């Protein structure tokens, strides 16, 4: 009846084609008004730009490379390097003036064999015969080659060990406290400083020409901590009897050690001539040597007697 209608009914209906605006083609969200170009811009910043003739630098040139390529920056860097070198040289000179780092290296040039021999010398100085310090071209050899040479390794380690042993002794008596341990360490350092200053003043007043330096004095005076450690340990193990026996032996040993060592330092002129010590000035030198040696046992007892009960 209606051919057109039947034809229309037999043929499937094609969807109507709608033209989409160009601005909506690349959008994931149809309700988004603008395209998100941040990712594209970030990718563009990291990509290398070709020579477009616009004078823009390529992305591979970092700001550091651009800074180094500037002649003014090169001059600034060279000037800064020269200033740093001059400052380092000035600091090194001032440090060597107050703290002789080069000399300190000499006093720590030790090895295990030297430490063992030196400890044996401190406990048994009566068996040692040759007390002369060896020289090589007017320069004393390193301590590891001469047991008579002073060093700072044993005094430094002995001082630290003394503080630790003092803390152990205080702990066994339920008297330990950080303040008391700090007072013990500061007292030992204060007495050592007073000893060094008193000896230097005495040498100046007596006008002694000697090669004995301040570091040598610190080394020789620091050897008494070895005997103090032995006395405290024996006191902890065997009580007062062990303390007095070991400390008494160490006091006599350090007295003999200081006499035989300082005799060659303070009485260098008389010892070199091989004549007996005579005259008022030499008598003062001998008294000074005896006073320094006698002060070591007194300080050893003063710094340890209250640690053993």
Protein model, in words:
The chain is mostly helical and 309 residues long. Helices cover 65% and strands 0% of the residues. The protein has helices at 3-10, 38-46, 63-68, 71-98, 101-107, 112-123, 153-172, 178-206, 214-222, 224-266, 268-273, 280-302. Helix 6 (112-123) packs across helix 10 (224-266), helix 7 (153-172) runs parallel beside helix 9 and helix 8 runs antiparallel to helix 12. The model is unreliable at 1-12, 20-28 and 40-54 (pLDDT under 50). Residues 35-45 have a biased composition (Polar residues). Its main location: endoplasmic reticulum. Keywords: Endoplasmic reticulum, Golgi apparatus, Membrane, Protein transport, Transmembrane, Transmembrane helix, Transport.
Mean pLDDT: 79
Helical percent range?
A: 55-70%
- Which structural class do the helices and strands define? mainly alpha
**Contiguous helical run count:** 12
Please tally the β strands and state the result. Answer: 0
What fraction of the residues are assigned to beta strands by DSSP? under 5%
User: Radius of gyration from the CA trace?
Assistant: 42 Å
Low-pLDDT regions: 1-12, 20-28, 40-54
Shape: globular
Reading the helices and strands in chain order gives: HHHHHHHHHHHH
**Major sheet description:** none
Gap between N and C termini, in Å?
134 Å
Subcellular location: Endoplasmic reticulum membrane; Golgi apparatus membrane
Membrane topology: Multi-pass membrane protein
Protein name: Protein YIF1
Organism: Pipistrellus nathusii
């Amino acid at each position: 009846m209606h051919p057109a209608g039947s034809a229309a009914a037999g043929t499937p209906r094609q969807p109507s084609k709608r033209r989409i605006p160009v601005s909506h083609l690349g959008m994931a969200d149809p309700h988004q008004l603008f395209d998100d170009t941040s990712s594209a811009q970030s990718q563009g910043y990291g990509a290398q730009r070709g020579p477009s003739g616009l004078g823009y630098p390529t992305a591979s040139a970092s700001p550091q490379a651009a800074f180094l390529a500037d002649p003014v920056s090169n001059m600034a860097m060279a000037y800064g390097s020269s200033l740093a070198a001059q400052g380092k040289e000035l600091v090194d000179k001032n440090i060597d003036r107050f703290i002789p780092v080069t000399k300190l290296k000499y006093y720590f040039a030790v090895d295990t064999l030297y430490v063992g021999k030196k400890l044996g010398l401190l406990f048994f100085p009566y068996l040692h015969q040759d007390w002369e310090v060896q020289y090589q071209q007017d320069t004393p050899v390193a301590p590891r080659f001469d047991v008579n040479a002073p060093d700072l390794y044993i005094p430094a380690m002995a001082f630290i060990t003394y503080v630790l042993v003092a803390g152990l002794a205080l702990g066994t008596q339920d008297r330990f406290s950080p303040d008391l341990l700090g007072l013990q360490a500061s007292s030992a350092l204060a007495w050592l400083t007073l000893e060094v200053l008193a000896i230097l003043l005495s040498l100046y007043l007596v006008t002694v020409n000697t090669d004995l330096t301040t570091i040598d004095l610190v080394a020789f005076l620091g050897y008494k901590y070895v005997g103090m450690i032995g006395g405290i340990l024996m006191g902890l193990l065997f009580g007062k009897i062990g303390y007095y026996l070991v400390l008494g032996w160490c006091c006599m040993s350090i007295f003999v050690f200081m006499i035989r060592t300082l005799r060659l330092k303070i009485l260098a002129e008389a010892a070199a001539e091989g004549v007996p010590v005579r005259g008022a000035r030499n008598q003062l030198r001998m008294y000074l040597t005896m006073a320094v040696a006698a002060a070591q046992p007194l300080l050893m007892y003063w710094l340890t007697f209250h640690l053993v009960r």
